[in-house]
Amino acid sequence: MAWTLGAGCAGDVAEPYQLDHARILAVRTEPAQLGPGARATLDALFTDSTATPRLATADELTVALPPELDRPELRALLSTTPEGVRIQAPDAGTLAQLRAALAVPEGELLRLPLTVRVRSADGVLHAQKLVAFGATLANPPPPTVAVDGATVAPGAEAVLSASRETSLEVTTGDELSAVRWFSSTGALRRYTQPTAWFSADDDDADAADSAGPGASPGHLAVVLRTAAGGVSWRVLVTKLAR
Hints:
Helix content: under 10%
Number of helices: 3
Distance between the termini: 41 Å
């Protein structure tokens, strides 16, 4: 599993795209797959009742092996540093030994399941992550997002209409196998497609009309998985306008 959506949330999420419910939105390793001897970082993108998606810090993030795989030679692949979780791929000889011990056919990826935990203000969140060893695969870069056909530059604010549907489109140079949109406000239609549609609800529209310069921004997030197994995401600050 290269990403996990909605992990750590109970059945109280009215809509799967809502950001104001604590959950892990996605987990990735960088790189996406590790060749022999490679090192990777592990990141978890999560949200909570503030509806502000962000990466878990080193103090908030932990990983663990399932009990049936909790053995010294596998624990040695994982470490927690002040910078975060690090994963060390075994060398070619050790990888072959692990494949044999775990009954993984020679030449196939060794996939190690991890339980990922994020300590949030709303409680501990959980997700499952498969880490693949045996071949190198990079994640795609952050995707390009267009709002009503206009590309949103990195770091720029995304302006959404408060009075009509707004189109949201994500593009990447890779073939996609899954897409998921999330929003802190309004409603999303087709939120599992590369092109989704946003509409503000009445309360959001009224708030946009009365908002001053110091008003709290909204957020959009989009997470994608490529057919090859890479994971990427982008988080945008949003503003409603008539």
